[in-house]
From TrEMBL:
Keyword Lyase: yes
Keywords annotated in UniProt: Lyase, Pyridoxal phosphate
Cofactors, names only: pyridoxal 5'-phosphate
Annotated EC: 4.4.1.13
Family membership noted in the UniProt record: Belongs to the class-II pyridoxal-phosphate-dependent aminotransferase family. MalY/PatB cystathionine beta-lyase subfamily.
A single GO molecular function term of this UniProt record: lyase activity
Protein name in the entry: cysteine-S-conjugate beta-lyase
Enzyme class of the recorded protein, top EC level: lyase
InterPro entries: Aminotransferase_I/II_large, C-S_lyase_PatB-like, Class-II_PLP-Dep_Aminotrans, PyrdxlP-dep_Trfase, PyrdxlP-dep_Trfase_major, PyrdxlP-dep_Trfase_small
All copies of domain Aminotransferase class I/classII large, residue ranges: 37-380
Length: 390
C-alpha cells in the first residue's frame, strides 16, 4: 500500500531546505516524491543493516538479473549483464559517457527546456552546449525535425541528449517521433544519450517507449547509451545507484575500460539492495502509485484550466511534473518567483533555470499527498487573485 503520510522537514532534505526563510512556504520542486519509499524496500535495506557490517559488497547475480528482467518486462529492452555499467547516479553516468565518448569542444545537442544539470555537465566537461528549442503546438511541445536536421549539420555536434519522458515538459515522445529522431541521428552519426530515468512513471494514456527497445530495432540500440535507475518511481534518489546500458561493442569496450580506470562501478551497497528489491517486488506498488499520480495529474490539470485559466498548464503525458505557463501575467521571471513566494507562499522551480524556452514558466511537482496538492493549487488561485487585484 502506498503511504503519503510523510514529513520531510528534517534531515537536510533538498526540497524543504527553503522553509528556513519562510516557514509558511510550501515547496513543490525537486523531482522526488512526498510518498514513502515502499516498506518492502526499507525492510530489505534494514536486513542489510541488521548484519551489523557495511563492508565491501559485490553486485550480485540477482541484482543484475532484476535489472535485466525489469527492463525487458516493463520496457521491451533486451539486455545482457555485460552490457550494463553501474554508476552512482544518472547525472554521473551522463557526465561519464560524455567524457569518454566525445572530445573536448564537441557539440552536445540538448532539447530546450532541459533538466538544468545537463548544461553544467556539458559546460564543465568543456563540450559545446547546443540548445535546440522545442516548439509548442496546441500547448504541447513537439520536435521540429527539419530544424533539428539542420542544427545537426550546422553544429557538427557529436551527441544528442534525449530525455524521455521529458523533464520539465512531461512529454512522452511517440514511437514515430523516436524513429524520426533515430533516423536523423543515424544520418549524422550522432550518439544518442537516452535519459529514461522517468519512464517507470507511466499513465494509462501514454506509455513511454525506450530508444533501446526491441521495437526501435538494432540500429537505434547500437547508437544509444541508455541511462536509467529505479530512483524516480520508487523514491530512492538518496541511495545512489544507477546504470548505463550499452549495446555497441566498441562503445562498450571504451566505457568498460574507463569504468575500471575510474572505479565508477563501485556503487552503494544499500542502493543495490534497494534497486534489486524495487525491481523484484515493486510492480504492484508501482501500479498503485502510478494510478495515484495519474489522478493527481488530472486534478492539477483540470483545476488550473477551470479555476486559474491565466496559468496555462502543459498536459503531463508522463513524469510527476507539470509545466506551467505564467506569461499572461506579464511578470518578469524574478517577479513571478517573488510573488509566488510572497503572495502564495508557494515555491516552484523557475522555468528560466531550464533554458531560454523556460522564460515565463514554472514547474510544479505533483507527487505528493492529494491534500498537499490541493493546498498548492489553492495557493496558486490565491496568487492569481492577489496579482489581478493589484
Ligand atoms: C531527466 C533527469 N535526469 C537525471 C536526473 C538526475 O538523476 P540522478 O539523481 O540519478 O543523477 C533527474 C532528476 O531530477 C532528471 O529529472
Amino acid at each position: 500500500m502506498i503511504d503519503t503520510n510523510v514529513n520531510r522537514q528534517h534531515g537536510n532534505n533538498v526540497k524543504w531546505s527553503v522553509i528556513k526563510d519562510d516557514d509558511q512556504l510550501l515547496p513543490m520542486t525537486v523531482a522526488d516524491m512526498g510518498i514513502a519509499t515502499p516498506q518492502f524496500i526499507r525492510e530489505a535495506m534494514q536486513r542489510v543493516l541488521d548484519t551489523k557490517v557495511l563492508g565491501y559488497t559485490m553486485p550480485s547475480t540477482g541484482f543484475y538479473d532484476a535489472i535485466i528482467r525489469w527492463q525487458k518486462e516493463h520496457h521491451d529492452v533486451t539486455l545482457k549483464r555485460e552490457q550494463l555499467i553501474l554508476v552512482p547516479s544518472v547525472a554521473v553516468g551522463l557526465s561519464f559517457a560524455i567524457r569518454h565518448l566525445t572530445q573536448v569542444d564537441d557539440g552536445i545537442i540538448v532539447m530546450s527546456p532541459y533538466y538544468p544539470p545537463y548544461k553544467q555537465l556539458v559546460d564543465d566537461n568543456h563540450r559545446q552546449f547546443v540548445e535546440f528549442p522545442l516548439v509548442q503546438r496546441e500547448g504541447q511541445y513537439v520536435i521540429d525535425f527539419n530544424r533539428l536536421d539542420q542544427l545537426m549539420t550546422d553544429s557538427q555536434a557529436k551527441a544528442i541528449i534525449v530525455c524521455n519522458p521529458h523533464n520539465p515538459g512531461g512529454c512522452v515522445w511517440t514511437t514515430t517521433e523516436l524513429q524520426r529522431l533515430e533516423d536523423i541521428a543515424n544520418a549524422h552519426h550522432m550518439l544518442v544519450l537516452a535519459d529514461e530515468i522517468h519512464d517507470d512513471v507511466a499513465f494509462s494514456d501514454n506509455v513511454p517507449v525506450s530508444m533501446m527497445s526491441d521495437l526501435m530495432g538494432e540500429e537505434a540500440a547500437s547508437q544509444t547509451i541508455l541511462l536509467k535507475s529505479a530512483t524516480k518511481a520508487f523514491n530512492l534518489a538518496g541511495v545512489k545507484c544507477a546504470y548505463l546500458a550499452v549495446k555497441d561493442p566498441q562503445m562498450l569496450t571504451t566505457l568498460k575500460q574507463a569504468a575500471a580506470a575510474e572505479a565508477i562501478e563501485e556503487v552503494n551497497t544499500l542502493g543495490m539492495v534497494a534497486t534489486q528489491t524495487a525491481y523484484e517486488q515493486g510492480s504492484e506498488w508501482l501500479t498503485e502509485v502510478n494510478a495515484y499520480l495519474e489522478e493527481n495529474r488530472n486534478l492539477a490539470y483540470e483545476y488550473l484550466r477551470e479555476q486559474v485559466p491565466m496559468i496555462r498548464p502543459m498536459y503531463p503525458e508522463g513524469t510527476y511534473l507539470i509545466w506551467l505557463d505564467f506569461m499572461a501575467y506579464g511578470l518578469s521571471d524574478a517577479e513571478l518567483d517573488t510573488k509566488l513566494r510572497d503572495l502564495g507562499h508557494l515555491c516552484l522551480n523557475p522555468g528560466i533555470d531550464y533554458g531560454k524556452t523556460g522564460k515565463g514558466f514554472m514547474r510544479l511537482n505533483f507527487a505528493v499527498d492529494r491534500s498537499v496538492l490541493k493546498d498548492a493549487l489553492h495557493r496558486l488561485k490565491h496568487f492569481d487573485e492577489s496579482v489581478r487585484q493589484k
